[in-house]
Design goal:
alpha/beta; Metal-dep_hydrolase_composite; globular; Metallo-dep_Hydrolases_sf; TIM Barrel; metal ion binding; metal-binding; hydrolase; binds dihydropyrimidine-2,4(1H,3H)-dione; seven-stranded parallel β-sheet; nine-stranded mixed β-sheet; binds zinc ion
């Protein structure tokens, strides 16, 4: 007791706790936003929450979402740090990692400064930044990127497609060499730009412009080839890469084979590859544009492959890839008009708030994955890969008290009207879920309560998180393998 006062700021009692590894029953004592005690019959808290045997899991980490990111055309992302982090919290996410995107001709530092200004005073929950490198000049490679990695921006994304973003293989190798030396994580958007351009040109010539043709312009082989190439470049320099938003069997096979031969290849998938199919692009009129994202959703067999790969440990990260464009209005999906051809529609769908409930309902309650796998892919894995563990991503003494008390119930449909983002639709409208975060706690503060609809009115309480080097990637086992595999020649080249 503190002079007769409560022992803790908050106690969550009777919690059925799951981490990435364990399941146990305990009370959780929180002081100053940090978990300070786990035990039975803990002393009192200034605030008490009775979980009554419900699941209490680490808060979600959404390690791939786009908030208030400049798009380069007249489209505008509908969610900024305020609406995006509010929506995230109401869906059980307590940390987001969006992207500070370098403009071609601009510096990385400018992108980071601009992104901090966009986030400042607006976030409800904690956030870190990935970088996006679009212009790897000698200055970027030799000075800016190493300096930013040292200051807590330890992961960067690169694109193999999109004219305004894409890098060629030589540029990718330049960046992988920096990542290798500085021990940073490289995330790769793997689709073959020339195949997409070639196919798109031919489809448009024949008048195939509707949203459904988006999927045909980005067939699985287009993703497979780029995934294979990204893996090969990673192996050439023996440095880890993480293939983002993997959509189906062909890319999975590339990743799985690489993992089996011991290559340091990590992968992410997203709800759209489990819960949407290409048929969702083929709706009346322009409705299919709501589900245009890249890579596109595939077919039911590919969904099955993604589920199996989730269960078999192929994926370390399950993210939303929230890319929020409104359907109605001039700056979202219709930025180039009501019936623009598929290649003119902004890519991306909303999903920050629905990510965890969908996976918990179908995955855990549906018996496809266990609760530890759920925690691993939605929280612990991203925390480890992006240098936030063990402060984030687990329930342990000394970790931030980022917790979710889960409600389970009879099936209820998702309704966009109930969500908190600033997008005017959800691709999951009407889909049933059987669970939803009942209470979201961020550093000991309740930020969301489902029973009452309470959302903390506390924009700006979220803190920026500088990331450590993702040590999990560079453990001695990996370095040992490197030596054994005869990569000594890399050292001879000063790499
Ligand atoms: N890639 C992303 O990572 N997000 C949205 C669209 C895209 O192509
Ligand atoms: Zn991408
Ligand atoms: Zn994305």
């Amino acid at each position: 007791m503190n002079g007769g006062g409560p022992a803790f700021d908050l106690v969550v009692r009777n919690a059925r706790i799951a981490t990435g590894a364990d399941v146990y029953q305990a009370d959780i004592g929180v002081s100053n936003g940090v978990i300070v005690a786990l035990g039975v019959r803990l002393a009192g808290g200034a605030r008490e929450i009775d979980a009554a045997g419900r699941w209490v899991l680490p808060g979600g980490i959404d390690a791939h979402c786009h908030l208030d990111q400049p798009t380069g055309d007249d489209s505008v992302m509908a969610d900024d740090f305020e609406s995006g982090t509010r929506s995230a919290a109401c869906g059980g996410t307590t940390t987001v990692i969006p992207f500070a995107c370098q403009q071609r001709g601009g510096t990385l530092q400018d992108a980071v400064d601009d992104y901090h200004r966009r986030a400042e005073g607006r976030a409800l929950i904690d956030y870190a930044f990935h970088l996006i490198v679009t212009d790897p000049t000698p200055h970027v490679l030799e000075h800016e990127l190493p300096a930013l990695i040292a200051r807590g921006y330890t992961s960067f994304k690169i694109y193999m497609t999109y004219d305004a973003l894409k890098l060629d293989d030589r540029q990718i190798l330049d960046l992988l060499a920096v990542a290798r030396r500085e021990k940073a994580m490289t995330m790769i958007h793997a689709e073959n730009a020339d195949c997409i351009a070639w196919l798109t040109e031919r489809m448009l010539e024949r008048g195939f412009t509707a949203p459904q043709y988006h999927a045909l312009s980005r067939l699985p082989v287009v993703e497979r080839e780029a995934t294979h190439r990204a893996i090969s470049l990673s192996e050439l320099l023996d440095t880890p890469v993480l293939i983002v938003h993997v959509s189906g069997r062909e890319a999975i096979e590339q990743i799985q084979q690489a993992q089996w031969r011991g290559a340091p290849i990590y992968a992410e998938t997203c709800p759209q590859y489990l819960f949407l199919t290409e048929d969702d692009l083929d709706l009346d009129g322009f409705e299919g544009a709501k589900c245009i994202c890249s890579p596109p959703p595939r077919d039911a067999a590919n969904q099955d492959s993604v589920w199996r790969a989730l269960d078999h440990g192929v994926f370390s990260v399950f993210s939303s890839d929230h890319a929020p464009f409104r359907f109605d209005g001039p700056d979202g999906k219709k930025v180039h008009g009501e019936n623009a051809s598929f290649d003119k529609v902004p890519n991306g769908i909303p999903g920050l708030e629905t990510r965890l409930a969908l996976l918990f309902s179908e995955g855990v309650l549906g018996g496809r994955i266990d609760v530890n796998q759920f925690v691993e892919m939605t929280s612990t894995g991203p925390a480890k890969l992006y240098g936030l563990y063990p402060r984030k991503g687990t329930i342990a003494i000394g970790a931030d008290a980022d917790l979710v008390v889960w409600d389970t119930f009879d099936p209820q449909p998702i309704r966009n009207a109930d969500l908190h983002h600033n997008v005017d639709y959800t691709p999951y409208e009407g889909r049933n879920v059987r669970a939803w975060p009942g209470i979201t706690i961020s550093r000991g503060d309740v930020v969301w309560e489902r029973a009452t609809g309470f959302v903390a009115n506390a924009a700006g309480r979220g803190r920026f998180l500088p990331c450590e080097r993702p040590v999990a990637l560079h453990r001695s086992r990996h370095e040992q393998q490197t030596r054994n595999k005869g990569f000594r020649w890399l050292a001879a080249l000063g790499l």
